[in-house]
Design brief:
24 helices, binds flavin-adenine dinucleotide, DNA Cyclobutane Dipyrimidine Photolyase, subunit A, domain 3, mainly alpha, 5 strands, Rossmann fold
């Protein structure tokens, strides 16, 4: 009997793996993962993603070996590899999960669909998230998400393997893929075992810190679940995380209100995960173009390379911003609030278009997930037309979320001796105090690139000037209809204005 081919993508697990389960029900399977040079040559790819992938693949390969099977890791063009394989074993069925990826993987999936058509291979794609392909309207989306997550988790199926007909090749090293070698030394490690350990420590221990702990960059690394990279590569399924969370919620005693609030807030984020990916699924162009085209030309023609270089180097002169850039470089992770603040600083006072900033951040974030990332980049830059732009003042954020300067001092060692009074605005410090505290503004920390208040006001005038135009307002309804959230998570989807009061304005 001809085997079925299981193509692993961003779903590196055996548990709750619908594609694998369906293929196994048909008979023997061949398991394939393809490292595609074109994907790794794209501007959103980074070595940390690649190393995390290799760690995850190594564990998946062992899990298959334990079941008497084999994961074939090939490198090259996907359809060329399918052709090589097909020449040896003319398989009739290809199984995979649906992927809402970037433009490169979208085009590749179209090429795979053509290849399957030409070779008479049936390609069975199954959703792995609550994201709906060819969605006709948003009204029933929340119900569909609930239906998806409520289905029982699939156990690892009984697997019968077919002998792999091609010689095993070595995974390329990152230099061969042209990747910059930087790999954050403190980043999370890949693989399902790590993912499960992170999930358990969150559910049974850390979730009590979630409410109230996720906004400060000091508490967030332990208060947040830290599951994002495991979701992005599919070491854990979204459904199994929802099930485990709901089970733990039900088991908590009535007086465990803090932990219950934490787990409830966390569950809402799992819903947002799919809500945002759905936007890219329904409108792949949002990776490249303003969601509301009335904003075309807003920033595109004002590109300021000096601002961008300073931002990437952590030399904006605003200590909280520069500390966040350094934390990203060392860990590959930052909490939501600080990500939003970084983008806000880039988009308003520095007046940078979201696309190059987003590519740079995609490489910084270990958990890069195109659907969430590009939707958030546009939302925080004010180009969706449907979200009230949120402009974060990095000095106010520092006072609110790092009141004693522990975070800034940790990531910017040059600032360690600077007293609290000057820490968040060191450029105001007289020269004799700079000498006393061992920091020279302009050298150890940059002078701010622009006058924050003035530049933010000018940015706001440009943006809000456009927002008032009747033609811009007219375009909003269609975007709300296609992408706006409905239902009970709605109020929280605008990123918690209640908690952020003061940030809708400049907040100076
Ligand atoms: C500009 C910008 C870019 C972002 N890019 C990404 C990205 O590429 N990949 C990514 O996973 N998240 C992204 N986020 C959302 C969020 O910052 C991260 O999901 C979160 O910080 C990951 O940490 P965690 O798993 O501990 O989050 P938790 O708070 O524990 O949340 C659990 C899960 O819910 C989802 N989630 C949480 N917050 C959001 C949100 N605001 N929107 C959608 N889903 C959410 C994620 O899958 C996350 O793993 C971005 C946010 C901003 C502002």
């Amino acid at each position: 009997m001809a085997p079925s081919l299981v193509w692993f993508k961003r779903d590196l697990r055996l548990h709750d793996h619908a594609a694998l389960t369906q293929a196994a029900a048909m008979g023997p399977v061949l398991c394939l993962y393809v490292i595609e040079p074109e994907v790794w040559a794209a501007d959103d790819a980074a070595n940390q993603h690649y190393q995390f992938l290799l760690e995850s693949l190594a564990e998946l390969a062992v899990a298959l070996q334990r079941r008497g099977g084999h994961l074939h890791v090939a490198s090259g063009d996907l359809t060329a590899i399918l052709s090589d394989l097909y020449a040896q074993v003319p398989f009739a069925h290809l199984y995979s999960h649906e992927e809402t990826g970037n433009g490169v993987t979208y085009r590749r999936d179209q090429a795979v669909a053509c290849w399957c058509g030409e070779h008479g291979v049936a390609w069975h794609e199954t959703p792995q998230f609550g994201v709906v392909r060819r969605l006709s309207g948003r009204d029933k989306w929340q119900r569909k998400w609930e239906e998806h997550v409520r289905l029982p988790c699939l156990p690892v199926p009984h697997l019968e393997f077919s002998a792999w007909p091609l010689p095993q090749s070595r995974a390329p090293v990152s230099e061969q893929l042209g990747l910059d070698p930087h790999d954050p030394p403190q980043r999370q490690r890949g693989g399902r075992r790590q993912g499960i350990a992170v999930l358990q420590s969150f559910l049974f221990d850390r979730s009590g810190q979630y409410r109230g702990g996720i906004s400060s960059p000091l508490s967030a690394p332990t208060a947040c679940s830290r599951l994002s990279p495991y979701l992005a590569l599919g070491a854990l399924s979204l459904r199994e995380i929802v099930h485990a969370t709901r089970k733990q919620l039900a088991a908590l005693p009535a007086d465990a209100s803090r932990r219950k609030a934490g787990l409830t807030g966390f569950t809402s984020r799992l819903y947002w995960h799919c809500h945002f990916i759905q936007k890219l699924e329904s409108e792949p162009e949002l990776e490249f173009r303003n969601l509301h085209q009335g904003y075309d030309g807003l920033r595109e023609n004002d590109w300021n390379q000096r601002h961008f270089d300073a931002l990437m180097a952590g030399r904006t002169g605003w200590p909280l911003v520069d500390a966040c850039v350094e934390m990203l470089r060392q860990t590959g992770w930052l909490n939501f609030r600080m990500r939003a603040m970084l983008v806000s600083v880039a988009a308003y006072p520095l007046w940078l278009h979201w696309r190059p900033v987003g590519l740079w951040l995609a490489r910084q974030f270990l958990d890069y997930e195109p659907g969430i990332h590009w939707s958030q980049m546009q939302m925080q830059s004010g180009t969706t037309g449907i979200n009230v732009p949120r402009i974060y003042n990095p000095i106010k954020q520092a006072h609110d979320h790092d009141p004693h300067g522990h975070f800034v001092r940790r990531w910017l060692p040059a600032m360690r001796k600077v007293p609290d009074a000057w820490l968040f605005e060191p450029w105001r410090m007289p020269a004799d105090l700079q000498a006393r505290y061992g920091v020279v503004v302009g050298e150890d920390i940059a002078m701010p690139l622009v006058d924050l208040e003035l530049a933010t006001r000018q940015a706001k005038e440009k943006l809000f000037g456009l927002r008032k135009l009747p033609e811009i307002r007219a375009g909003q309804a269609a975007i709300v209809e296609k992408h706006g959230s409905r239902g009970r998570h709605r109020d929280r989807l605008s990123n918690a204005p209640a908690v952020d009061s003061g940030q809708l304005t400049l907040g100076f």
